[in-house]
Amino acid sequence: MSVTLDSALQGAGLGLRRELIPALTAGKPEAISFYEVAPENWIDMGGAKGKAFRALTERTPLVCHGLSLSLGGSAPLDEVFLRKLKTFLELHQSPLYTEHLSYCSDDGHLYDLLPIPFTAEAVSHVARRISRTQDILGRRIAVENASFYTESPIDEMSELEFINAVVAEADCWLHLDVNNVYVNSVNHRYDAREFLRGVPAGRVVYLHMAGHYKENEDLLVDTHGADVIDPVWELLEFTYREIGVHPTLLERDFNIPPLEHLVGEVARIASLQHRYQPQDSHASVAIHS
After folding, report:
1. Residues contacting residue 48 through CB under 8 Å, at least 6 positions apart
2. Secondary structure of 47-66 in HEC code, one letter for each residue
3. Cα separation of 197 and 49, whole Å?
4. Which CATH architecture has domain 12-276?
5. Which of 61, 177, 241, 264 has the greatest number of beta carbons closer than 10 A?
6. 249 vs 185: CA distance, rounded Å
7. Domains of the chain by residue range
8. What is the pTM assigned to this prediction?
9. pLDDT at site 148
């Protein structure tokens, strides 16, 4: 099983939405070092759209960020999907696959990412499912800290303790979503910087940045439908200083503006990476076992 990421994955990336493909096909902006997709949306894609997608991934590294594996769910893992996913990852030479630390299925898919109770039993359950996923894919994966809006009455530990326990027991990587840390810190009233200081830095390999919706002063909703706000940019700088510079993606899934607007935010990520990355090295991609 691979324990390091392909060194080709570095810099700042953009979520590859179908609406953006014509503009990206005409010419990839220099600021974009890689793309990210939800593989569920592309595995069976053929025809002209499939060809256009393949042409992009032949020239630019592709990260796959899953939506449907339901690592915290009770239904058996979809091993048929995982085997199709393995073929897809190999076809597009994807250096990284990540999934949400959440669940999205019961008797069928729920079409939402729901929080896992923070219990010791859940740690063991999720870690077993991650380990099985890694065995089938033949590679280490990364799990993403999720946004959540209600606390479970059976929680036995904090969000941070739960994340740390899962990645240690599963021996997987951590995909750190900086916006989710900010959103949860407001909604659940904790210090985002203290949270980041407690993250297992040696397991972080990938970051997300995104915008959110402000419902009111103490309720933020993770929508990926707006520009990144200044406090989240400041938290990214803090993350780079405390944890190190890692490949970082801009997510924009709704209210998608023209490519030129998104490239401005991607370029801002790249500029911060350059500022905080030692001049004699590239963005960090390795994990220390």
Report:
1. none
2. HHHHHHHHHHHCCCCEEEEC
3. 43
4. Alpha-Beta Barrel (3.20)
5. 177
6. 21
7. 12-276
8. 0.92
9. 87
